[in-house]
Amino acid sequence: MEPIQYDNRRRSIQWMNQCEVAKHFLRPKLPQKKVMVTVWYSASEIIHYNFLNSGEAITVEKYCQEIDKMHQERQRLRPSLVNRKGSIFLHDNVRPHVFNNKGAAQNAFEELTDSRTPEFYATRINQLVSCWLKCADSNGSYFDK
User: Fold this and answer.
1) What is the pLDDT of residue 96?
2) What's the CA gap between 73 and 47, in Å, rounded?
3) Is 86 exposed, middle or buried (0-12, 13-18, 19+ CB in 10 A)?
4) Residues 52-65, buried b or exposed e (16+ Cβ, 10 A)?
5) 49: which strand partners?
6) Where is coiled-coil annotated (predicted)?
7) Each residue of 6-25: b (16+ CB within 10 Å) or e?
8) What are 21-56's pLDDT values in tens digits?
9) Cβ–Cβ < 8 Å for 11, 38
10) Burial of 125 by CB count in 10 Å (0-12 exposed, 13-18 middle, 19+ buried)?
11) pLDDT digits over 91-104, tens only?
12) Where are the domains of the chain?
């Protein structure tokens, strides 16, 4: 088994004289074993998901393709949401979960989604409103639950 490896190194702070120029560091290459999944869900179900190929990065073009696919699925599953007014999307990046290979990641994802009821999604999405209000009331300051 080969583990999926991530390169999350942070660049060090540099101490310099006034006339010195900061050293430039090359961005690390994308790890070849990285697997990413994009997930779009509503308050009742998963609308669309897609696993990127190993080493494939999410680009603007790829992200737009995913949005288009999600809109097509949303039209098929929930036509009532298509012409709805107001915001209906939230973008979130979560911490990475590590698996030994793409198959293990897909299996874990499918097990997770199969174990969730529509009430799970509705509860989580409805909790966002109180979180947003709490964030606004605290002027964007950090808080725990």
Assistant:
1) 66
2) 6
3) exposed
4) beeeeeeeeeeeee
5) 39
6) none
7) eeeeeeeeeeeeeeeeeeee
8) 776 666 655 555 667 788 887 777 888 888 887 777
9) no
10) middle
11) 666 666 777 778 88
12) 37-81+88-137
